[in-house]
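Prompt: For my understanding, could you write out one protein's sequence and backbone structure tokens?
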Amino acid sequence: MGHQAYYIHPELKLSCFESKLYRADVLFEEHLLVWFISGETKIVHGDKVHWFGAGDILLFPRNQLVTVINYPKDGLPHQSAVMHLTKRRLTDFYAKNKVEVKQMQTPRFQTFDRHPLLKSCLASLIPYFELKEPLPDPVASIKIEEAITILRTIDPDLDHLLANFEEPGKINLVDFMEQNYMFNMPIDKFGYLTGRSLTTFKRDFKKVFQTTPQKWIMEKRLELAHYQIREKKRKPSEVYLEAGFENLSHFGFAFRKRYGYAPTEMVGA
């Protein structure tokens, strides 16, 4: 069995992965508060790798392009309780709790070392997942507001993250693409994260790179895979996901078309 997500409310879910592992490039448009119940999670963000295990609590900032890999562990599936902190919910909360928001640099993943207040709040959601009907919105609102209140009590600086509703601004295209080309995202998402419409993104990209985003991204991914196999002596099966390919056969086809030989022919060379 693969992935199951049980929503008791649009903003509250129990997520379970029972397969060997699950990998995805993700971009969440809402902040997520995650309590890892079992299993292990690896999150790759830029050049940083974060590991989380059972009992850990994570605040996942919105609009961060990352690779998430979930693993079952100790005979248990990967399971987590997830609370979506939506813009609507946070806008309503901060309309009643006025704060002066300071501009943050790159939002960071926030962990809470199994904080008892947050753990109690999130653990109290588990019995609700046994309901046969959706959780009433007034009850969900109480639990979500409780979580927001606890977060800002633990770390008052989180107000500057949670109460900031600005969209991504226009940033340097070259720097962003060089750091993120291996992520499997629709082109319009790359545009959004660089503060551009799809049309403007394609126009600026052509001006800077003298080619289309699709062709440039494919070339960069193949170059990365070629380097990892030749210089780092890694197997094709170990590098194709990291390079941004979703399956090994597609990677092998694209690699042979670009270099004239299969990636397996480089192993041991």
User: Anything to note?
Assistant: The two ends are 39 Å apart (CA to CA).
